[in-house]
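Input sequence (118 aa), recorded before submission:
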Amino acid sequence: MEIWINPACSKCSSALTLLDAMGAEYTVRRYLEEPPTAEEIEQVLQRLELEPWDITRLGEPAAADLGMHTWQRDAAHRDRWINALATQPTLIQRPIITADDGTAVVGRSADAVRSVVR
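Predicted structure, token format:
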């Protein structure tokens, strides 16, 4: 499994601590240093069964700078959201865990993290 983290994020630290306590094997991706491509974001969204606006941190200054609060949330504008996440990775909700079985979660709660550890 892989976990996308920001080391400064307390939710990411909690998720890593829980994964370690559960004996999970995982790879850490510091997504601010190694940003995901638009294609990778699309793949993760499919696994999460979410839309890009569902994993966007709208409280970030970059979101305000882009005026994302006013962006339409529909299929016609989906690529715009994905491209913004790819070019401004601070906008991506964290941590995101992708499991080897094809599932994925936004691991902001202990239950979400536990759900991907088999």
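Checked by second reader. The longest helix spans residues 10-21.
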